[in-house]
Amino acid sequence: MSILIYFSLGLYKTKYKSLLIGVNGSISVIFCMSFPFTVFSGYIYDLRILPFIITILYGGVRPGLFVALVLLLYRYLLGGSGFVVTSFCYIPIFLFTAVFVRFYAELSKTKVITFGTLLASVSALFVTVGSIIKSDEAILQHLSFFVYYCLTLMTCTWITLYMIETIKDNVKMREEIHRSEKLNVLGELAATIAHEIRNPLTVSKGFIQLMKSRVNNETDLKYSTLALEEIDRAESIVSEYLMYAKPQADKTEQIHIKKLFHNVLQIIEPYITSHGHILNYKIEDALYIHADAKKFTQVMINLMKNAVEAMEHSGQLTIHVYGGQYDVVIEISDTGTGMTKEQLSRLGVPFYSTKDKGTGLGLMVCYRIIEALEGTIQVESTKGVGTKFSIAIPKAAEPMESR
Predict the structure, then answer these.
(1) Which tens digits make up the pLDDT trace of 253-266?
(2) Confidence (pTM)
(3) Which residue from 21, 34, 50, 375 lies 20 to 30 Å from 355 (Cα-Cα)?
(4) Which of 157, 174, 191 is the last residue of a domain?
């Protein structure tokens, strides 16, 4: 119930989601301990381990610590001699899970479910061993209890993790569909009006240039220059709209990544050094992709310019290009201001930009071009530390003549 409430009410969208996970986990733990069940005479079962572990895996260490305190406090209030055993068992479970959670986010759905279930089994072993040590009885006397308890906990853990991961996938898919619908509407709008806007802009620009060549006083010259700059800016936005409306590659060719980056870095390096930043790069050879060279170059330059603008003086821009099993991976890292999780979630959304005068259209175009190449973009960022864009493009076979 706590899982369904968490997702159905959209609690995962709030900035207090870790706190809400802790509260949900605490309520679940209290209900589990309040309503245990019995199968074998003399043995009482409950599944308090499950919400405890789930809270740490999906909420983090702090919510997990909160649930642990609630669990121990409630166990103390229930009375009996089991408080010491509970404390003895759940402290190592908490520490082991807290260490494991660092690697949990990087696992695939199947591995998440598998390792999470194994983690619950190990935790059940801790609890059972603690109970046996306390009772001073032979292990065989507890064997049926141990087997039944482990199988029950493993089954419930597997079901719970599968449900959580499936709901997460569905939420992600729904958000992606919603985003695609918004972007498609914007693309149709751009295709409809961009050309019509560009024509009067071109005429206006021509007349202002003519007037500028004839003015003699500084005030009129200043105003003419400012008007031309704003028209250039408007034309740039219209061009981005046009590119956004039709981002697919008009002509794809096999591109040698190292040669393309050599040209890109020749263009962008003066811009980087002029801002007082350092450029580091490592590019593997013999990597190829199928793409439109001009548009792919535009994507790389746009992302690098954004990285430069996000950094203060004496920043570092690092380019790392290497081959994966099926993809060419391009990592662009900066030591800039970084972004919050909320800002990261809105990247690529129409008209959203972290820059004061940005329109967000440039990054939108980058996303659309990469998607047209059947590639993916992942962004990692920490506020005050920096940002890393990771782009994966399907790898093309190496040409015969270069082998």
Answers:
(1) 889 999 999 989 98
(2) 0.58
(3) 375
(4) 174
